[in-house]
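Blackboard transcription, Thursday session:
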Amino acid sequence: MSTKRILIIDDDPDMRLALRLPLEAAGYAVSEAKCVAEGLAAVKQVKPDLIVLDVMMDSTTAGFQVALDVHSPDPKSEFKDFRETPILILTAIHTTTPLRFTPDEDYLPVQVFLEKPIDPEMLLAMVRKFLEK
Amino acid sequence: MTPRSPPAGLGGLPKPSISTGRHTLVEAELVASVGWLIRLRWMAGAGVLLATWVVGAVFRLHAPAGPLYIIGASILLYNLIFYLRERRLAQASAPAGAFSRLAMWQVTLDWLAMTLLIHFSGGIESPAILFFIFHIVIASIFFPPRTAFAFALLAAALLSGTALLEFYALLPHEPVGGFLEHPLYQNGLYVVAVLFFFTSTGLFAVYLAASIHARLRRREEEIVGLSESLRRATARLQTLNEGARAVGSTLDLPEVLNRLVKSTAEVMGVRACSIRLLDKSGRLEPVAVYGLSQAYLDKGPIEVDINPLAREVLSGKIVNIPDAPSSPLIQYPEEARQEGIRSVLSAPLVGKSGPLGLLRVYAVEPDRFTPDDETFIAAIAAQGSIAIENAMAYQAMEALDVAKSQFVRRVTHELRSPVSVTRTLLRTLAGGYAGDISAQQRDILNRSTRRVDFLQKLIDDLLDLAAGKTDLSLREKREPVALGAVVEKVVRRFEAPAREKGLTLDCRKEAGEAAIMVTATVDSLDRIFDNLLSNAVKYTPSGGRVTATLSHADGEARVLVEDTGIGIPEDAMGHLFEEFYRAPNAKEIESEGTGLGLAIVKDLVTRLGGRVAVQSCPDKGTRFIVALPVAAGGEGPAARAEGSP
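(Written on the board underneath:)
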């Protein structure tokens, strides 16, 4: 089984480090991008198996734009190959979303929200669930 | 006798400038008099017919009944024409001149009829001669004295003519047979005497009527003038009153200003009114204008430093400029001339902390404004100042509220972001993902993690509380929410911690209670019950029980959160909902706690229109009761069927 590639898109270098360490320790190939534009370019270049995406970057909802583009249902979308690529969306606590998934749940949407702070065990459990299904 | 056109009519009357609708008050009086005369004439015509009949049938006298009946009928006929004409003029709201001409025609025809009546009732012998005096008095009422005297002399001439023609038998004498034993019409002395007394009585009647009438008319003019100034005073009072109401009724600044300029201009009867307010750069910017052209407004900035008039007004003076184009105080005299402005009256608008701007009225006439006007505009300006200041304060408050909310949102992000990154980093480190760590290092990391986690909780709670105090959106975002569903979800969240601690956690609700809807947001309800259940689980020792119970009664939904925990000491009860307060026994159990949870609960419940109460017994347990109003139509059918206790 080839090494799975994970792309982290987050404007905060400390956050990228905190995410990268456990993912690398678990044996994934990790790439980083620090803004929306860089992130979208990296998606095409790296062809990640999974994306970890921060919501608040250039604007408070910049991350959602990335998710919308990557998962666009438009058949002519430049990201149509990545329509099924799972995205873990990192949100700040209290910017509440009614969707709270845990790795135990059977149904796995293509986008999942993770609340900060990110517990590395939880992150890895989630990633494994996606990549080893 | 030929009718004359009006100069003699209203020509001599004073022309008051005051108008009540279509006619001035004096003209209105003439219009009314024309109608009055027509009503009198019905009686006069009928009187002639009746008298003619009475003379023949009752007194058995031989009057020339034929001509007399014709005269009576003619009077009624031409009066009918006058009546129709008058009605048409009145309906068409014709100018007073038309009524004046009508009056002239009436007098002319009346005099002709009168002369004929005298002739056919015995000429100089006729007792009807006296009736002529009525006509002279009526003419004196209608016309100015000179015209009335002329009419009196005309009456004398008509009578004399008739008498002389009969005297010399140039006109047949038409006596009332049986009235006089000896005819008098050829008795020269008698004829001269009657003519003399008639003429002098007529002239004297005009003199009396004219002088009484003149006096009445003067009085009337005074009354008209008084009522006019009363009307103006009332209008001014009304404007002041409206201004006062504007202060109370609206806090919308442009609305306040526009009402003020419009009503001021209207009530003072001037061309225009404007309000300029001082901006931060010391300019007077027009904020409300009535009656000025855009070109005039665009004439250029009014800068207090170089505008002598503005400086003087802002220092608190009322400045009355009788002729703007030639006044050295005016910054733009040429523009004022082009705009047609002559008089300008300015009053300062003064707030509690200094000048706000100025209120100004403009008139096209030179030297238009009186000391009364100055007093009036001062009152308007004083009242306007209050209204403006209130509205400005309200505006500033609203802006502050928005700024505060924005600030809180910004701080929320700025504070939370580094803390949450630090927490993530610490967890990564503690998890050994950055290399192995010793037991002591792990201990230190865990301590750091705990402290930073607490910091996060503190920030969240503080910001929640601050946002709650400033965030107006909770009211707007509210919608009917199923209370039971939210409570159940929160209870489920605490199942794992409760199990770990060896607690029994229950959520009780009777069938149908889940359908109870309250008007709220899911988030606010979640925060309320999350805080209450978290406390209950935290402060209940192992083996205890925590229960959430949902019920409803009297239009209220109630959630009881009960525990068998440590309870709340008596003297702590009063402080429970205070910010940062923590009961001493709670601190013993859990050293870290923000003391904000219950303050948030209280704040949210209150803002949702509900109540929160607490009952507790130390060492036995605590019960929190949250009561929220049920949303309209929010009680499920099952709930209703079960009824209230």
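Lecturer's comment: Confidence is low (pLDDT under 50) at residues 1-22, 636-645 of chain B.
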